[in-house]
Description:
Layout: H1 4-25, H2 34-56, H3 58-68
Helix pairs in contact: 1-2
Amino acid sequence: MDCPRCMVLEQAFECKLSKYTAARSAAFFRVSTQLAAWKMVDMERARNDLEEHQLTCLCAQAANVARVTPAATP
Length: 74
């Protein structure tokens, strides 16, 4: 995607996802799940922000159309 906001939101989501994954796999997760739950909420918020932006972003919509439309063959 060429949209700078899409790229920033995608990076934020990937960062939150990796932090959530790390919290889930940590040894203390078995004792206290609260930290992992907070990380999951942060990750879901980042995913929602990205999805909401992509609904209105012309660059993301164009990329989705190009991905779905089959290539013309001569």
